[in-house]
Amino acid sequence: MDPALFSTTPGFTDLIRHDIRLRDPNQQPIRDSTSRIPAKLLPAIEELKATAASQKANLTSQIEDLKKDLKEKTCQLNEAQKQLKLAQDDNVCAKLRRDLRMAEVREKDSTQARISDSTQARISEHRGFEEQLRRAQEDLTAKDEEILALHKAKNEFLCRLTDEGEGPVHAKPTKIKDLCPMEHTQVEGHEAKLTCVIGLARKQEARLNAAQRSVEQELRQKQLQLEVRDLQLQTLTEANEFMMQNVTQLTEDVTRLHREMQQFVKEPTTSECGTESRPQTVEQSHRETIPEVEVSAQDLCEQRRLTADSSQATTNVRMPFQVIEEEKQRRKEKSICNVLCCFRQSHLETMSEEEVSAQNLRKKKGQLIRTGAFKQAKTADSSQKTTDVRMPFQVTEEKKQRKGLGCFSWIWRRK
After folding, report:
1. With contact defined as beta carbons under 8 Å apart, do 283 and 391 qualify?
2. For 203-248, what is each residue's pLDDT tens digit?
3. What does the pLDDT read at residue 287?
4. What are the coiled-coil residue ranges (predicted)?
5. What is the largest CA-CA distance in the chain?
């Protein structure tokens, strides 16, 4: 639009003033505002309104789209933060475990090194004490030898004095104070020196013995500490091995369960109509493959067996071992029938086209004579009920035999 149109249009200034008054809450709005707007401005105003409405709609849609994108991005950011937190937690746990293992290894190595160093120091100190004790013992032996030599010299001197003197033998001097003053002084000096040396040697020996006892006690304490440390290390090793075994077992169980789950997911097969085909039991597959005449005959035998069992439960009085034997026989016959059904199913799968056509003809023949066969069986059963005078267990055994022979009928027809 041309701006000069608005500047040269009469009433445009009034329109602006009216707009200002409308926006001013203190002034009363003019009710009839369209009467002052020129007619040629109305299309432009409508066009502006339409443009503003379209732009507003576009902006609203863009804002909604931006809100949706922001919401999606926020969800993605939250998921990423959760995954990052989990990964950081896993990394922190792994790092802590690794640091713990390294700290345990360092502590173990430092403890062993410290124990070995202290043990070596104690052993070297003990060896030093042993060397000092050996030297002291050698000095003590030398002093003893000197003492023995002095005693020997004293005895020789006393013997010489006795030989040179006069008078009887009992007048010989036997004490040091009976000697001359000079000799008495020398002997007392030697005895004082010997006593001092012996005292020093005994003190040194006592000191060495005390040091040896303290060293032995410390060595025993260190050995006990080493044994305790070894037991702790052994316990920690066993606990670690046990935990590793548990982790290995859990890993194997998880792997096995995952494999079984995958196998279970892969097992269900879909049929042609789209539904899952469920595995059939042996009896269902057998009932689907046998002719209709046999199915009806088996149903009739089953109904008769149930009737006989109900009558037998009310009238027959048997011993417990008889009931157990009959149950064993029934289970045995049922297992034989199942095996034969499986064999027949496998045989049907390997049959040729001619054999299949022959079997189909037999089925049709059975369908044709089915009604008459059932009428004959019902007539025989009704006559048997009226004229048969037998015990209930005899009737049950005969029905069992008939049912068992019915399972073998398809083999006889095959032959």
Report:
1. no
2. 878 888 888 888 888 888 888 888 888 888 888 888 888 888 888 8
3. 47
4. 49-97
5. 183
Residue 274 above 50 pLDDT? no
For the segment 12-23, what is each residue's pLDDT rounded down to a tens digit?
A: 555 555 554 445
pLDDT at 130: 82
Residue with the two structure tokens 């369209």? 34
**DSSP secondary structure letters along 46-72:** HHHHHHHHHHHHHHHHHHHHHHHHHHH
Q: Are 205 and 136 in contact (CB under 8 A)?
A: yes
CA–CA dist 178, 362 (Å, integer) = 154
CB 296 within 8 A of CB 370: yes
Which has the closest alpha carbon to 108: 245, 234, 23, 292? 234
Question: Which of the four pLDDT bands, split at 50, 70 and 90, describes residue 358?
Answer: confident
10: CB partners within 8 A, 6+ apart: 38
Does residue 206 contact residue 194 with C-beta atoms inside 8 Å? no
Which of helix, strand or coil describes residue 211? helix
Where is 267: in which H helix or E strand?
none
Q: Alpha carbon of 397 to those of 133, 235, 402, 403: distances in Å? A: 107, 70, 9, 10
Q: How far is CA 231 from CA 103, 116, 220, 222, in A?
A: 19, 17, 16, 14
Contact between 277 and 271 (Cβ < 8 Å): yes
What is the Cα–Cα distance from 408 to 54, expressed in whole angstroms? 88
234-272 burial code (b ≥16 CB/10 A, e <16): eeeeeeeeeeeeeeeeeeeeeeeeeeeeeeeeeeeeeee
Q: Using DSSP, how many helices (H) and how many strands (E) does the chain show?
A: 10, 0
Predicted local confidence at residue 176, as pLDDT: 46
Q: Which pLDDT score is estimated for 269?
A: 44
Residue 86 structure tokens: 């989990």
Written as six digits, the tokens of 123 are 């052993």
* More confident: 176 or 354: 354
Q: Are 392 and 315 in contact (CB under 8 A)?
A: yes
Specify the DSSP class assigned to residue 332: H
What pLDDT was estimated at residue 295? 47
The single residue listed with the structure tokens 């199913």 is 345
CA-to-CA distance for 159 and 165, rounded, in angstroms? 10
